[in-house]
Design goal:
By secondary structure, this protein is an alpha/beta fold. The chain is 57% helix and 10% strand. The strands form 2 sheets. Strands 1, 2, 3, 4, 5 and 6 form a 6-stranded parallel β-sheet that branches. Helix 3 runs antiparallel to helix 4, helix 4 packs antiparallel against helix 5 and helix 11 packs across helix 12. It is globular, with a radius of gyration of 23 Å.
Length: 361
């Protein structure tokens, strides 16, 4: 993923230098390494002296609720920088007003302030998320600019953020960009995030890059298996690695599973095709018991039947009409079920009318 990490490094460096840079939203299926990449990019930002927020958007929390405590930490750090102190304290006042004004609508906002931090009347306290978040992020950007740095938001599972909250976030980032303030977003989400961003704000494509994170090419998949083992004095035969790459299709999480189980069953180095064959049954069993099951168990019986019909049709993607035929139902009847499963992150629509699993196998 070197090319993508370099793209992120350039975006962060341009933001810190006060130059325009597009935010980056990584799109991909589950288990392709988006979260690992996001954390790697954040470490890069910290090493560059950039102030960072790290958030995972759960289904049950609001964006203001998860953003406010993290932003408070950043602003407190900025308030310790002498040349940024006054502006950072003003931004803390904006955050205090933001939390107070929006706490009725978003009752999960929990953030404490020192007794000398008071809301500033008229600053981020309207009670309107789109307006207030804009003023809040711009205030944070002003403090970062005074400190000669930047604020980088790292948000995982962005597809779970509600559209009105996503709209407010895009508007706030747009306002910061228009004022040339050093605020940037690096995020990750499932493929449905692209459409959700477009629906939230039509100009989202001008603010963001949407790199698709997929399976690893063969050479990178081989390296992912061979190098960690070789570093510990263990080798795989070429045929064994070929078989792992074939079974996993270069899908990063599956490479880990097959690598782990091949290591566990092999009596000695090098690890052979026979070891991989034995490991394959164990890897699939382990996936069934954990990785697949925790997602499957969240579904209703009707949603499980929908996925069963997709599975019977093969790897996919499949036309909605073909799935409906298997279930002997109308496409429009199944629309709410399909939308609910997309919302739970189990399937996605690569093209209009097509449905695919968000995880291979």
């Amino acid at each position: 993923r070197d090319e993508l990490q370099e793209k992120a490094r350039i975006a962060l460096a341009r933001t810190k230098a006060g130059r325009q840079a597009k935010s980056i939203l990584m799109i991909g299926l589950r288990g392709v390494g988006k979260t690992v990449l996001l954390d790697s990019m954040r470490m890069q930002a910290i090493e560059m002296g950039i102030y960072t927020l790290r958030i995972e958007a759960p289904e049950s929390r609001s964006l203001p609720g998860i953003l406010a405590p993290q932003l408070r930490k950043v602003l407190l750090e900025l308030s310790r920088i002498e040349k940024a102190r006054d502006v950072a304290r003003r931004a803390l006042g904006a955050l205090a007003g933001f939390a107070k004004a929006l706490s009725v609508k978003y009752n999960d906002i929990e953030v404490g302030f020192d007794s000398d931090i008071e809301p500033i009347p008229g600053l981020a306290d309207n009670g309107d998320l789109e307006h207030d978040l804009q003023q809040l992020l711009c205030s944070a950007g002003e403090a970062a600019a005074k400190a000669g740095s930047a604020v980088a938001l790292f948000i995982d599972e962005l597809q779970y953020v509600l559209e009105d909250e996503l709209e407010a976030l895009i508007t706030a980032l747009h306002a910061a960009a228009q004022q040339n303030l050093p605020v940037v977003l690096l995020g990750a989400g499932l493929p449905q995030l692209t459409g959700k961003m477009g629906r939230a704000k039509s100009y989202a494509e001008r603010l963001f890059e949407f790199p698709f994170i997929g399976e690893l090419p063969d050479d990178a998949a081989r390296l992912a298996i061979e190098k960690p083992a070789h570093d510990l004095g263990v080798d795989f035969t070429k045929e064994a690695v070929d078989l792992i790459v074939h079974h996993t299709r270069g899908y990063p999480y599956f490479l880990q599973e097959w690598g782990k189980h091949s290591w566990d069953v092999a009596p000695q180095s090098p690890i052979t095709v026979d070891d991989v064959e034995e490991a394959t049954a164990l890897a699939i069993s382990a996936l069934d018991a954990s990785f697949f099951r925790v997602r499957f168990d969240r579904l209703t019986p009707a949603e499980k039947r929908y996925l069963r019909a997709m599975a019977e049709l093969g790897p996919g993607p499949h036309r909605s009409g073909d799935i409906a035929l298997v279930l002997r139902r109308g496409v429009t009847q199944l629309g709410p079920t399909r939308n609910a499963i997309i919302g739970k992150g189990m399937i996605w629509s690569p093209n209009h009318g097509d449905t695919a699993f968000t995880v291979p196998l």
